[in-house]
Amino acid sequence: MPELPEVEALAHHLREHAVGRRVHRVDVASLQVLKTFTPPWTELQGREVTGAGRFGKHLDLDCDGLHLVVHLARAGWLRWSEHLSAAPPKPGRGPLALRLHLGPPGEGPGFDLTEAGTKKGLAAWVVNDPADVPGIARLGPDALSVTRTQLEDLFAGRTERLKTALTDQTLMAGVGNAYSDEIMHTARLSPYATAGKLPAEALDRLHEALVGVLNDAVARSVGQSAATLKGEKRSGLRVHARTGLPCPVCGDTVREVSFADKAFQYCPKCQTGGKPLADRRLSRLLK
Question: Residue 263 belongs to what domain range?
Fold first, then answer.
């Protein structure tokens, strides 16, 4: 799933390549992806792209005051091309959900919104104000802007596991499954620690890891093409998606806890005093 660093890099790419261009045509290959009907998506056509930004894990393309907001979900992606095909896509064929032409079709650049797999979560909204998107309206403060004091205030009284708190977008926006694993590993904290009971020294480490991991990932991601971002993300991970491999810090074996259709990874020696955590596939840990 694209998280804060990747979405920030995509926004940067659009600021570099899309701003100043005009929307010539929008092709919708999957009506399911559109979550709004007023204003209609056809109103994007003819407008100049004036900005691109991010709200948590939502990507925002500002088309002269009308916003195309996208949440890429677990398997969605933005694919930029310097020469998009002029032929309108056939609805329901392949992973393509929406195509935006930023030049004469067949001659100019633009991008596709695609989604792999059968479980569809990719969503797009056309709104006058990004705050009209329900997911954005519910977001907590952006993870990159949270201070040490704010982090303590956000966690005060929270009874859920640390893993759950870090990935709760209403509490703090932008951190997902992968970077929460990396942050906890860097901070040497157990995913099962209670968020509201972390001592001051642990909160210090957590905030330092939050800022360090995300800023490092943003620095590595911004400037990359959309096509190389996924590989760049994987190359920078130390524990996430590395089950069975040695921890790059201590050499212990990276372990996994599975729950429902997700999983997280951690290092026992670095994070849990050497004790492996129970792996309950149907655990309610992150519901």
Answer: 143-271
The H or E element spanning position 58 is: strand 58-63
| Residues 103 and 20 sit within 8 Å (Cβ to Cβ) | no
Which residues contact residue 87 at a Cβ distance below 8 angstroms, ignoring those fewer than 6 apart? none
Decide if 175 contacts 214 (C-beta within 8 A).
Answer: yes
Residues comprising the chain, all counted = 287
The 76-81 sheet, strands edge to edge: 25-28, 96-101, 110-115, 76-81
List Cα–Cα distances, 109 to 14, 85, 121, 124, 153, in angstroms.
Answer: 11, 9, 26, 20, 45
Nearest to 83 by CA among 43, 112, 115, 49: 112
Contact 271, 185 (CB under 8 A): yes
Residue 279 domain-assigned?
Answer: no
Which residue's entry shows tokens 């040497």?
A: 188
Give pLDDT < 50 ranges for the chain. 282-287
Tokens 């056309």, located at residue? 126
Could you report the per-residue pLDDT of 40-79, keeping only the tens digit for each?
A: 999 999 999 999 999 999 999 999 999 999 999 999 999 9
Considering the domain architecture, whether residues 98 and 177 belong to the same structural domain is answered as no
Per the structure, the count of domains in the chain is 2
> In terms of domains, do 21 and 63 share one?
yes
Q: How far apart are CA 102 and CA 68, in angstroms?
A: 14
> What does the buried/exposed string (b/e) look like for 198-225 if buried means 16 or more CB atoms within 10 Å of the residue's CB?
beeebbebbbebbbebbeebbebbbebe
> In this structure, what CATH number is given to the domain that contains residue 11?
3.20.190.10
Residue 166's CATH number? 1.10.8.50
